[in-house]
């Protein structure tokens, strides 16, 4: 019986420390990609910086470099938005995420202590 409880406890801790934060991060990335708009400055997963020129479904046309070279990329290839106004929002959301993670860890430790 003790072994089953300890295994279940490990799964609960595993969920709160690994799975839940990963799901939150994936949701934030999906939301960021869904809310892209013309004029946003972005960085791709390949490290290319550009400004969104046009959006058509899941294909973005970005302008890159001094020569205003236009490149078509997939929406999923956007790693982050580098606009200054969005940076402050991203920093605030990262701080909120840290606070939620700390709260989740405290809750899981309290549950662990209550079961013992």
TrEMBL record:
Q: What is a single Pfam family found in this protein's UniProt entry?
A: YajC
Q: Provide this UniProt record's keywords sorted from A to Z.
A: Cell membrane, Membrane, Protein transport, Translocation, Transmembrane, Transmembrane helix, Transport
**Where in the cell?**
Cell membrane
Q: Where is this region: Disordered?
A: 87-116
Bilayer-crossing regions: 6-23
Membrane topology, as annotated, equals: Single-pass membrane protein
Name the domain of life this protein comes from: Bacteria
The answer to keyword Aminoacyl-tRNA synthetase applying to this record is: no
Give the principal location in a single coarse category.
Answer: membrane
What GO terms describe the biological role, i.e. biological process, of this protein? protein transport
Q: Name one GO cellular component term.
A: plasma membrane
The family assignment reads: Belongs to the YajC family.
* Name assigned to this protein: Protein translocase subunit yajC
* Organism lineage string: Bacteria, Bacillati, Bacillota, Clostridia, Eubacteriales
């Amino acid at each position: 019986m003790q072994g089953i409880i300890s295994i279940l406890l490990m799964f609960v801790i595993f969920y709160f420390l690994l799975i839940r934060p990963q799901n939150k991060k994936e949701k934030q990335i999906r939301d960021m990609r869904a809310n892209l708009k013309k004029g946003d400055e972005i960085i791709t997963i390949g490290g290319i910086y550009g400004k969104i020129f046009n959006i058509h479904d899941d294909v973005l046309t970005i302008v890159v470099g001094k020569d205003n070279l236009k490149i078509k990329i997939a929406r999923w290839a956007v790693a982050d938005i580098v606009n200054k106004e969005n940076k402050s929002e991203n920093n605030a959301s990262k701080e909120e995420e840290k606070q939620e993670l700390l709260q989740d860890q405290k809750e899981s430790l309290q549950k662990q202590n209550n079961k013992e």
